[in-house]
Design brief:
Elements: E1 3-10, E2 13-21, E3 28-35, E4 44-50, H1 59-63, H2 67-73, E5 76-80, H3 119-134, E6 137-147, H4 149-160, E7 167-171, H5 181-191, H6 195-199, H7 203-208, E8 218-223, H8 229-233, H9 235-245, E9 249-254, H10 261-278
Amino acid sequence: MLEILSEHRCFNGIQSYYRHDSETIGLPMRFSVFHPPVERKEMVPVLFYLAGLTCTEETFMIKAGAQRHAAEHGIMLVTCDTSPRNTGIEGADKDWDFGHGAGFYLDATQEPWSRHFRMETYVTEELRNLVINEFNVEERCMGIFGHSMGGHGALTLALRHPDKYCSVSAFAPIAAPVQCPWGQKAFGNYLGDDREAWKEHDASELMKRRTTPFPKGILIDQGLGDKFLDEQLLPAEFEQACRQAGQPLTLRRHEGYDHGYYFIASFMEDHLKFHKENLGR
């Protein structure tokens, strides 16, 4: 059963927050939806946003300034929490970059995390199907984007499920998690010691095996003032992998911009326009 937590008028559309009992996760999950005005009279394309470490289903909707552009372009925005919550797993609240708030958009295979941390299946199947069944959306017009850990999720889920997403972009994604401390910590705990298994959730490694999975291109924006750029994000690795795969990529590097939502809000309109074009609307 879908529970409406709150609704707010926004740019003549509705910003809504929901909760439901997730079969995939085995716990309640929260997500938020911006319903554009045009949804009241016609089916609309959907853009899923995946947030970064420590964020919730509220962060993007409050900080990114995306609703104005989504209302203009007639696009539904959907974002979910970044992990299961209140799992009862020992240590899940110990670190800000692992556990609660840090699901990394994969299905954990290692106990105790595998009991509830199944974010890939949740996003690509359960949440997607819930949106299709509950709202006035066009199933064939779905895109995905995200920030940091969520940028990693957007790229990897798009590459792992290209039949479900027509369009993909990212802000400051963790582009090569196998090579960075955040990714190594998460993958080692969620997936175990097999580094070949890690590569199945690394956008750069996945892209090396593909041949132009998104012929209309991929858009990435990266701030050069981002303190995580050199150690954690490694966008040049993904850039090289795209070049190797023949994948069109627009990787824009911005002087002075950091890792936060001021950066994201500055280029949000460009991403909504990019997805509108790729989703055929």
